[in-house]
Amino acid sequence: MTTPSSANPADQLRAAAVAFIAAQPGGPQRLLAQHTADATGRCRGCTTPGYGTAHGQWPCTPVLLARAAAQDAS
Ligand SMILES: [Zn+2]
């Protein structure tokens, strides 16, 4: 894994999240299995709290982070 040279806090937070996901056994694959698009293009994994209905636009942030983690692992 490469460490970004940027001191941007958002970049550092993103890198930490990607590293955390990559460190979990099957982490990226588990996230990608949970966060899939429904027929309207919303994420089944990012639901409205208290309702359980698909909420977030897909691909959501967890999918983007999991894709980056999967790339780091390969
Ligand atoms: Zn999601």
- Head-to-tail CA distance between termini: 10 Å
Helix-strand sequence: HHH
Count of DSSP strands: 0
- Main beta sheet: none
Percentage of residues in strands: under 5%
Number of helices: 3
Structural class: mainly alpha
Share of residues in helices: 40-55%
Mean pLDDT: 90
- Any ligands, ions or cofactors bound here, and which? zinc ion
Radius of gyration from CA coordinates: 14 Å
Looking at the structure, what is the overall shape? globular
Identify low-pLDDT runs.
none
What can you see in these coordinates?
With 74 residues, the chain is mostly helical. Helix content is 49%, strand content 0%. The chain has three helices and no strands. The chain has helices at residues 9-23, 27-34, 61-73. Helix 1 (9-23) packs across helix 3 and helix 2 runs antiparallel to helix 3 (61-73). The chain is globular. The model has no long low-confidence stretch (mean pLDDT 90). The structure holds zinc ion. Zinc ion (ZN) is lined by residues 35, 43, 45-46, 56, 60, 62-63.
Write the layout of secondary structure elements.
Layout (H helix, E strand, L loop, with lengths): L8 H15 L3 H8 L26 H13 L1
The structure holds zinc ion.
Zinc ion binds next to α3.
